[in-house]
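Posting this for the archive.
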Amino acid sequence: MPTAVDPSLNRRKLRLALKAARDKRGLTQRDAAEALEWSLSKVIRIEAGTVSLSVTDLRAMLHEYGVEDADVVAELEEAARGSKGQSWWTPYNDVISPPFSQYLGYESAASDIRGYHPSLVPGHLQTADYIDALFAVGRPTPDAQQRVDLRLARQERVLQDDGPAVEMILDEAALRRQVGGPAVMRRQLAFLKELVVQQKANLRVLPLTAGAHDSLDSSFFLLGFRDDEDVLYVAGPGGVSTIRDDREAVARYQECFEDLRNKALSEEDTVTLLDGLVVGYHTD
């Protein structure tokens, strides 16, 4: 079933339209802020899509930017009304960092998701018991179940029928690592195969024989949009970052993904490998 439109999608629609209108008017963000008698940070937050926008403020911006088309104004006013309210991940705010919350806003609006993790099955594709096994490592925390529920809720949204196109490169090392033991891994690998067979995701394995590459120490995800440039999410030794404006960094990971894609097994060989690993876990 399709889910209701998330407020983050409406905020993104407003962000793109207002930035385009401001640029067409030949105004900088500072120019717009001074003309509207607002703080510069308010304009920046609106154009970043991180805050809701009232219809009154929207009308002020559209007037300043010379947007008069009645249909466009009505469409954006509807988006402004829909920019308020809670995002789907709001119930999990206690276990979500601000950077990850920002990333989830972008992910909710993405038309496609490409990604790679060097040592684990990517979080979007993990089964419940695989997630449980990951969170069971180390000292128990009272919010562990909430973190599990968040990851599964995110997976449900990403893999729904009208969700984004998903393409992931699975590292063979991650598939051979016994997270939770043989039974957990059998179910996890069977789930990955099911996603491929049902064409819910484009999954291909990067074999161990592929050797070294540019993302051995970092996981990353590239979010694609029909009307905007890619957004990059990277997690590695340097921390976690959501990158939109550093086009050089985004391009580097776009090239990295192409390299991984070229080195990965075909879909048919990926399914064959998954089947073989499942058999192996039955004998362990």
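The two ends are 39 Å apart (CA to CA). The chain has a mean pLDDT of 92.
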